[in-house]
Amino acid sequence: MAEHLPMQQFPGNARAALQNDAQRRALRAAADVFDERRRTAMATAPDWQLWRQTAREVKDHTLLHLDHYLEQFERNALQRGTRVHWARDAAEAGALVLGLARQAGATLCVKSKSMTTEEVRLNEVLEHAGIEAVETDLGEWIQQLADEVPFHIVVPAIHKSRGQIATLFAEKIGTPRDADAEALTAAARDRLRAKFAAAGIGISGANFLIAEAGSLLILENEGNVRLTTSVPRVHIALVGIEKLLPRVADLDVFLRLLPRSGTGQMMTTYQSLLTGPKERAGDEGPEELHVVLLDNGRSRMLAQDITRQSLACIRCGACLNVCPVYQQVGGHAYGSVYPGPIGAVVTPQLVPLANAAQLPFASTLCGACRDVCPVAIDIPALLLHLRQQVREGSGTERAAAPRWFERFAMRVVAFWLRGPRRYRVALAVARWCDRWFGWLLRWLPPLRQWRKGRTAPRLAARDFRTLWRERSKP
Amino acid sequence: MTTAHDSILASVRTCLRRTADSPVPAPPPVPMLGRVDLDASAKLTQFGERLAAVGGHLHLGIEDGGLAAVQQLLARYAPRSIARSNAAAVTNLRDHASLRAQPWQPPDASREELFTADLGVTAAQWAIAETGTLVLVGDEERHRLASLLPPVHIALLPHSRILGNLGEALKTLARPLSPAVTFITGPSRTADIELQLVIGVHGPRELHVVVV
């Protein structure tokens, strides 16, 4: 069973990832492609700022009245024959889905890509119970064959080269070692067709739930979602409670933002708007449709304005693609289901903070994630908020950081920054110290530790203010 | 013992400082996004351009209900088994003397039969010019597998059904919603291997839209 790296050891994971040249090459190439695609997509969206503002307003309204919309969704879904279940945490969700699978008598289930099922480790639960769970999204299937967790929330196997995938397929399913992307894709299609035909249940997530209609909406490009939700007798969707939207009409803005931000497309190939199981014998579609609404720490995030915005996320992956940290260390280093900037804010709120205490620090706070976010989540502000929680955490969540030293250092800095004269004096002292004792300071803590991952250049002989004064002289 | 239903709602309400009968203001108004000023022929042109951009093919068959275009396509692909929806436009074509000998499946073909089809013919209830998207509605035709399983999909689109943008399409969909409304924009695709585009994964490799 695929395991995550230890989340508590982000620095170690990151160091190891930086030694992986093949992975870094793949990430570099991907960053360029994503960047170009996003630019092209944005050229077709002159009103992008208006769209993201509209989308955020809808999300804020929905989240502020989430109890109302959850109940409305449940009522309307039930009326259309969908069965609605509620799960407080991962264990409850796993047990619920397993119960439904057993009831359906299924021994094989097909799955379309769902980060929420990763979050509750559903495959593990099913396989422990002897039910085969097959991922059908190509990237996700590659990761399953390799016994790895997804590396990226939209492109799960983005870190693998075609050559690596060809080798993997050759070992696992006997395709030629020099197969190209087309041949590998065709081989996957063939294998998975047989699984779709035989599966007793299909398990999906959902991008949006529509309260007024009791509907699910799922986006995709491959067609595996449509197969998963149309072919098996039973369809189960596991969905976080934050995925609600009030109205069908609200989909407009989100279907404009999500494909452009995620893959640079104006529209993904397929959107399935599903409302209930089939209504008459002879109709198409599943006989049973179950929606499992998952909390697992989400409702807690509603309490404060700053944390509530984490629930506006539509999982497009844009923040991963622009993040200078993700571009270097990749998705596995985070050790969490949700990697990258959004993972660094969501994971510490979903799991006990002490377990994810390193993640809010895995960022340079450059703000690129906030600039590209289609729902304008202020990720840097959230990261700072979580850093503060980690440092000031109470009880068992208290981090073992040298709090007294940090506070003392901050006070010293604050003193010297309080006025221009103090600042000048401080700089003069610092320059003098650097000149005569720089070697010693760099050898002693705390600079010694700081230098392990960074360079500590000498202070310039003359500061900017001096240079500026000299230049401005007539 | 409280149920998960009750305890999740209670937790949501506590965190939001709401009660079961707290008021809910109207959600924010829905703005009309995208262009609304195109006439019918401009919409058809834009639809064709967008469809081509995502790798689909447009054929015009307004005069003959798509007969000539479908004849040509069937001659080109020489399918061994054709899946079809139960839409009237599709049935009319099938009943035409020149096409009756083709290997059509019944419109209520079993799942097993549908898996063996190498071409699928459906109608489409609506299209969206802005994105080159087809909208297929389950209540109007049995389209879910016929438009998905075969490697080639031919869709008959009435020319009067091309809408300008997505917002219009969402407004136009009949309520209550059909159990399955499918939006299709081009052939099935993936970029999961080195972000390289590959056409035809789990769904059709080719999409032909015949405007009737």
Can you give me a brief rundown of this structure?
The complex is a heterodimer of chains A (474) and B (212). Helix content of chain A is 52%, strand content 10%. With 474 residues, chain A is α/β, with parallel strands linked by helices.
Note the main attributes of this structure.
heterodimer, A: 474 residues, alpha/beta, Rossmann fold, 2 domains, six-stranded parallel beta sheet, globular, B: 212 residues
Compile the SSE list and pairings:
The complex is a heterodimer of chains A (474) and B (212).
Chain A: H1 10-18, H2 21-43, H3 48-64, H4 66-79, E1 83-87, H5 90-103, E2 108-111, H6 115-119, H7 122-128, E3 132-135, H8 138-145, H9 162-173, H10 181-198, E4 201-204, E5 208-210, E6 215-220, H11 224-230, E7 234-240, E8 244-245, H12 251-263, E9 270-274, E10 288-294, H13 298-301, H14 305-308, H15 318-322, H16 324-329, H17 340-350, H18 368-372, H19 379-392, H20 403-416, H21 420-443, H22 447-450, H23 464-472
Parallel strand pairs in A: 1-10, 2-3, 2-4, 4-7, 5-8, 7-10
Antiparallel strand pairs in A: 5-6, 6-9
Chain B: H1 4-16, H2 40-53, E1 57-60, H3 67-77, E2 82-84, H4 88-95, H5 111-116, E3 119-123, E4 126-128, E5 133-137, E6 152-157, E7 162-163, H6 166-172, E8 180-184, E9 189-190, E10 198-199, E11 206-211
Parallel strand pairs in B: 1-11, 2-3, 3-6, 4-7, 6-11
Antiparallel strand pairs in B: 4-5, 5-8, 9-10
